[in-house]
């Protein structure tokens, strides 16, 4: 066992505070990582506030982890001390079910082990990346290419794969028209990735406040959803709409923006239930779908793609003592576009 510094929420909705946590000893197939940067994801805030479900406390959030290998187990073959690596949203899965065998560990039939607020195979609660170190099985670690700075790479471990996976699955590319709904921590990465894939990209945002940013990051068009004319002008336009928002939507209105056989794919997760008139999907053979992060192999593919195309998150680096303020700023959309914690300050 080793003791590392961390920031944890001691109770639901409580401010995060500095503490120490125990990490397991490095076993045969484990990799110990010196965490250098950890991104702040909106899901961290949902979890701290128990917006989706009850979770165990104290809670150390963080599943956008970038760092350097400091120790490897005797059976490790994929990594060596000094390698630049990342850890995303989960750190284990059953490895036996059909989905795991297909590289879809995120849909593990027995349930994957989340990077934090989960119970691992040792019966211990997992703690996330708001810490100075972590120990992870080598099969759930990915390599960060040299072309990606660790700080801008960290958010790709969630925001990057969360948007890359559905864009790849629904075949975004040359000749396709992709709309990104929401221009925030997920949305701005989706714009960059869809553009790099060769799609014609449109941002749909509540206002035109971030229009210049959207166009700079690769969008071809930018529309305000607060303007009713937007929905008339764009009727039947898109092959894919990727919704990154975590608030309830008028799904009927957005489904009408799809072409026949188009897909509205949700990666944002509202805390409230949604309602839907099924005529919205039946008329036009449209699909209302969802997508959840990505498997380990696909996450590595995403990182390699981002390195090749110069795609990284737009970040604001903060000190650990600013985490609680950063949470409030995320909730008020006061960040462009992802906070990253400098783990040296923990």
Automatic annotation (TrEMBL):
Residues 14-341 form the Enoyl reductase (ER) domain. InterPro entries: ADH-like_C, ADH-like_N, ADH_Zn_CS, CAD-like, ER, GroES-like_sf, NAD(P)-bd_dom_sf. It is an enzyme of class 1 (oxidoreductase). Keywords: Metal-binding, Oxidoreductase, Zinc. One of its GO terms (molecular function) is zinc ion binding. Its cofactor is Zn(2+). It catalyses: a primary alcohol + NADP(+) = an aldehyde + NADPH + H(+). The keyword Ligase does not apply. It comes from the Bacteria. PROSITE patterns: ADH_ZINC. Its EC number is 1.1.1.2. Belongs to the zinc-containing alcohol dehydrogenase family. This is alcohol dehydrogenase (NADP(+)).
């Amino acid at each position: 066992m080793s003791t590392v510094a961390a920031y944890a929420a001691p109770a639901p909705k409580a401010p995060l505070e500095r503490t120490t946590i125990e990490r397991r000893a490095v076993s045969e197939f484990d990799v110990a990582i010196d965490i250098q940067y950890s991104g702040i994801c909106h899901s961290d805030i949902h979890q701290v506030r128990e917006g989706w479900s009850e979770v165990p406390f104290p809670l150390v959030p963080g599943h956008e982890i970038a760092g350097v290998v400091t120790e490897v187990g005797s059976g490790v073959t994929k990594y060596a001390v000094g390698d630049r690596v990342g850890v995303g949203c989960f750190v284990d899965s059953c490895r036996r079910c059909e989905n795991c065998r297909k590289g879809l560990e995120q849909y593990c039939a027995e349930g994957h082990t989340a990077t934090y607020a989960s119970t691992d195979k040792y019966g211990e609660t997992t703690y996330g990346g708001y810490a100075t170190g972590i120990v992870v099985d080598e099969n759930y670690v990915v390599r960060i290419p040299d072309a990606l700075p660790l700080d801008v790479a960290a958010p790709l471990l969630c925001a990057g794969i969360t948007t890359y996976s559905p864009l790849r699955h629904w075949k975004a590319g040359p000749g396709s028209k992709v709309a990104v709904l929401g221009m925030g921590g997920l949305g701005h990465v989706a714009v960059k990735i869809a553009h790099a894939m060769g799609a014609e990209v449109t941002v749909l945002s509540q206002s035109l406040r971030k229009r210049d940013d959207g166009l700079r990051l690769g969008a071809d068009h930018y529309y305000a959803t607060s303007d009713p004319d937007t929905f008339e002008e764009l009727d039947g336009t898109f092959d894919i709409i990727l919704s990154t928002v975590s608030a309830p939507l008028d799904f009927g209105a957005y489904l009408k923006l799809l072409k026949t056989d188009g897909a509205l794919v949700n990666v944002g997760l509202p805390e409230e239930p949604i309602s839907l008139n099924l005529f919205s999907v039946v008329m036009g053979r449209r699909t209302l779908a969802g997508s959840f992060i990505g498997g380990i192999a696909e996450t590595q593919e995403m990182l390699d793609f981002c390195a090749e195309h110069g795609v990284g998150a737009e970040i604001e680096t903060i000190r650990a003592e600013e985490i609680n303020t950063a949470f409030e700023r995320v909730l008020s959309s006061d960040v462009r576009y992802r906070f990253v914690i400098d783990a040296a300050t923990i």
